[in-house]
């Protein structure tokens, strides 16, 4: 029996043995490959997506770190531009406010100047009127002293016409006499120099006018000198 097996081994060629060994090894490799677990395509895609997301996060973090580390980038230029624009607007507002203030000051100066001119004119006019009023008083005293039989004389008539012309001139200049007799005493218009008894007027009423008073544009130039009923 043993002799027959040895005989069979001797009869098998050597190359045949090597080919059989290679085939056996190939079959074992295929079996090992078939035995390894297969990875689904979806799992592979998810793994690739996770890697890409992680890479994007790292890039974003790097950009943020770079921006913080380098604040002199394009953003700085943008804010710098806005800052310059804000300064320009502030300068424009400041100059506009100065112009408005100067215009208001000039308007106030103009109004104040006009008021002062008006006051100066009124003061000058009052000064002239005060100097003219004694002349009017003298005309009135002189005409009042003329006897009744001499009032038709040419000289007296001429003086009377001059007196009336002077009163017309004062009236055109807005100078008016103050009414006194028969009026209630008013300290703003009247100057009481004496008290008197009267059957015609009540107490506190002006009974006699000693010197005529005048007003200029609703302001008193000279108070009336009067006697008031006690």
Description:
- Strand 4 and strand 5 form a beta hairpin.
- The chain is α+β, with helices and mostly antiparallel strands.
- Helix 4 packs antiparallel against helix 5 (154-172).
- The chain has 5 helices and 6 strands, in the order αααααββββββ.
- The protein has helices spanning 2-11, 14-35, 41-69, 74-144, 154-172, and strands at 175-177, 190-196, 206-211, 214-216, 219-222, 224-229.
- The model is unreliable at 1-17, 29-48 and 72-79 (pLDDT under 50).
- The strands form 2 sheets. Strands 1-4-5 form a 3-stranded antiparallel β-sheet.
Keywords:
alpha+beta, three-stranded mixed sheet, 5 helices
> What is the CA-atom radius of gyration, in angstroms?
64 Å
Number of strands: 6
Backbone shape = elongated
Q: What is the H/E string?
A: HHHHHEEEEEE
Termini separation comes to 186 Å
Structural class: alpha+beta
Number of H/I helices: 5
| Mean pLDDT value | 75
Task: Assign a percent range to the helix content.
Answer: 55-70%
Beta fraction = 5-15%
Walk across the major sheet and give the strand order: 1-4-5
Q: pLDDT below 50 for ≥5 consecutive residues: which ranges? A: 1-17, 29-48, 72-79
Q: Let me know the largest β-sheet.
A: 3 strands, antiparallel
């Amino acid at each position: 029996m043993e002799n027959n097996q040895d005989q069979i081994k001797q009869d098998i060629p050597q190359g045949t043995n090597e080919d059989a060994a290679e085939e056996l090894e190939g079959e074992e490799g295929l079996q090992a490959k078939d035995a390894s677990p297969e990875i689904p395509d979806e799992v592979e895609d998810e793994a690739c997506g996770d890697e890409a997301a992680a890479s994007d996060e790292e890039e974003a973090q790097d950009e943020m770190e770079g921006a913080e580390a380098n604040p002199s980038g394009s953003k700085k230029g943008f804010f710098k531009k806005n800052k310059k624009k804000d300064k320009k607007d502030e300068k424009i507002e400041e100059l506009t406010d100065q112009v408005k203030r100067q215009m208001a000051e000039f308007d106030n100066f103009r109004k104040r100047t006009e008021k002062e001119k008006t006051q100066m004119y009124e003061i000058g006019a009052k000064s002239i009127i005060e100097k003219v009023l004694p002349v009017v008083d003298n005309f009135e005293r002189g005409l009042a002293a003329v006897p009744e039989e001499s009032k038709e004389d040419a000289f007296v008539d001429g003086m009377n016409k001059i007196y009336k012309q002077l009163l017309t001139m004062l009236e055109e200049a807005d100078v008016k006499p103050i009414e006194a007799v028969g009026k209630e005493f008013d300290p703003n218009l009247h100057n009481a120099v004496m008290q008197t008894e009267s059957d015609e007027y009540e107490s506190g009423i002006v009974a006699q006018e000693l010197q005529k008073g005048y007003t200029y544009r609703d302001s008193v130039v000279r108070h009336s000198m009067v006697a008031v009923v006690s």
